[in-house]
Amino acid sequence: MVEPPTNSATATQATTAAAIRREFTALLGEFRRTAVLLPLSDDGLPLAGDFGGVRWLYTFSDEAALARFAAARGAADQEWAYERVLGARLLDAVAPALRVPCGMAVDVASPGDELLLPPICGVVPDTVAVDAGAYGEGNGQ
């Protein structure tokens, strides 16, 4: 049987999508193996922002990235309390414990280095992944 000719644009898109998935998987693995900085609010809770029905915990690869974030918030002269936490612990234990869709915002305010780890299957446990129907079919309800 003769295979139909492939559309080169479709093949290019598939190749690009596969490369993006590989890169994301590598970044996710690196995050899971790394102790990151988790800034704390005045009440000792992880500093987070809510957007699109997801709570995003702010995490940073180092103190310089945290300082850029503080400067962007107009709080460069403020001392920031933080904990060092293994990325895997944040994804596997902390995110589920919050009982809302929760992802990680890594190195925000560091142009070119930002990374979002959304609460989806393969990133967080399936029981709290929005694409697995957690929290009312993925709408945060």
Would you report the number of β strands?
6
Tally of helical runs = 4
Structural class: alpha+beta
What does the radius of gyration come to? 18 Å
Indicate the overall shape: globular
Can you summarize the main beta sheet?
A: 4 strands, mixed
Strand order of the largest sheet: 2-3-5-6
Instruction: Give the integer mean of the pLDDT values.
Output: 89
Q: Return the string of H and E elements.
A: HEEEHEHEEH
Q: How much helicity do the residues have? A: 25-40%
Strand and helix layout:
Blueprint: H1 8-33, E1 35-39, E2 48-51, E3 54-59, H2 63-72, E4 82-86, H3 87-97, E5 102-106, E6 115-117, H4 134-138
Parallel strand pairs: 3-5
Antiparallel strand pairs: 1-4, 2-3, 5-6
Structural overview:
There is one protein chain. Helix content is 37%, strand content 20%. The strands form two sheets. A four-stranded mixed β-sheet has the order 2-3-5-6, covered by helices on one side. Strands 1-4 form a two-stranded antiparallel sheet. It is α+β, with helices and mostly antiparallel strands and 141 residues long. A hairpin with a 2-residue loop joins β2 and β3 (54-59). The protein has four helices and six strands; from the N terminus they run αβββαβαββα. It has one domain (8-138). It has helices at residues 8-33, 63-72, 87-97, 134-138; strands at 35-39, 48-51, 54-59, 82-86, 102-106, 115-117. It is globular, with a radius of gyration of 18 Å.
